[in-house]
Amino acid sequence: MRVLMFGWEFPPHISGGLGTACYGMTKGLAHNDVDVLFVMPSATGDEDQSDLRIINASDVESTEVSSNIDEFLGKVEFLRVESNIMPYVDPEDYSKLSSEEQSYQTESFKYHFKSKYKFSGKYGTNLMEEVVRYAMVGGTIAMQNQFDVIHAHDWLTYLAGIAAKRVSSKPLIVHVHSTEFDRSGENINTQVFDIEQMGMKEADKVITVSDWTRNIVINKYGIDPSKVVTVHNAVDFSTRKAMDIQKAVPEKVVTFLGRITFQKGPEYFIEAAYKVLQKTDNVRFVMAGSGDLLNRSIRRVAKLGIANKFHFTGFLRGDDVQKMFAHSDVYVMPSVSEPFGISPLEAMQSNVPTIISKQSGVAEVLKYAIKVDFWDIDALADAIYGLATYPAIAKVAGEKGYAEVNAIKWDNAAAKVKDVYQAVINLKK
After folding, report:
1. CA 192 to chain centre
2. Which range marks the domain in which residue 171 is found?
3. How far apart are CA 404 and CA 366, in angstroms?
4. What are the CA-CA distances from residue 378 to residues 168, 218, 270, 344, 373 (Å)?
5. Res. 51: pLDDT tops 70
6. Residues 202 and 275 in one domain
7. What is the mean pLDDT of residues 125-129?
8. How many angstroms separate the most distant Cα atoms in the chain?
9. Structure pTM?
10. Higher pLDDT, 117 or 107
11. Is there a single domain that holds both residue 66 and residue 191?
């Protein structure tokens, strides 16, 4: 079985959990005898291709299969979205798509027909333009390759998945790692929502990373429940190295690691830190990450008068993430809405006692993480205080958590995804 897979990022160049999940899933699929052609906007050549073949969209001409461009565009049917948008920050107000913009995109694509487009692969101000051009290249790649099923990860690649389906007539799976409601609450960007909904409706099956996300897909996007299946994420520990870390501070270290955005709940972490520090001086708090709430978080820490016990590291990647966990005594993920959440699994694999919000997909699979409502600052502060103050509690939580996460493997998740592939392939026969 061969799958044409569309993703926006892949290790070592990642900005969040999406790239990490794609890496684990592709390795798991390889171990389940699935051949993966992984398309990404901009590959640098240092990606691990031992278990898959990476196609760099920046190296692909718009099309070299169809001499009639109007016929090609008719098959694909695409939208141009002219807006500046960052996918992981609070959205601004955007205008609806207009027929003039679609006409402009058509003429623009005709001008660049049989030419290459250099993708940044980032989340910059021309993101939507890259998403649309990526869809065009996706259609071309679908014409040039043989495969059995298409798999598109997250909204950035849904248009590419749709284009590939329309030119190849192969079944499409869309994988929902996050929704616009997770990222923005009820103040959603309607253009992103429209792309997400379009992808889900065009898909033959929708895979969600948790039942939490499945319920959002069904209730917010109006997708038939029989079409939506949950496959929980896992985590790959095969590349982890043992670390002998000497802590530079005597206090217990409590860590938040993730994007500093509304979705991740950094402000709840700060308020809980203040409450804990009223009870004990033997603790330090670390916020590792970057995002649109960073400056506001720094100001709030200063206003609360806890800056001497609170540290901001900026964005961490690779070995620095593992080092941060090695320095930590407690890990906290207070997300407002978390489709899954891989970082708690990484923390628990480092023997770090972990606290997660009940509003997360990972809460569905973990027994030995402490679970609190994201908004319950008192409960969060009590949990942090207990783990930081009572060694016996922390020891049991660390040991039980370590054993639990080591049983959550990508090979098992990939086997379930392969079953979804086979089901949609059988329906097409």
Report:
1. 15
2. 2-234+410-428
3. 7
4. 55, 33, 12, 21, 10
5. yes
6. no
7. 72
8. 73
9. 0.80
10. 117
11. yes
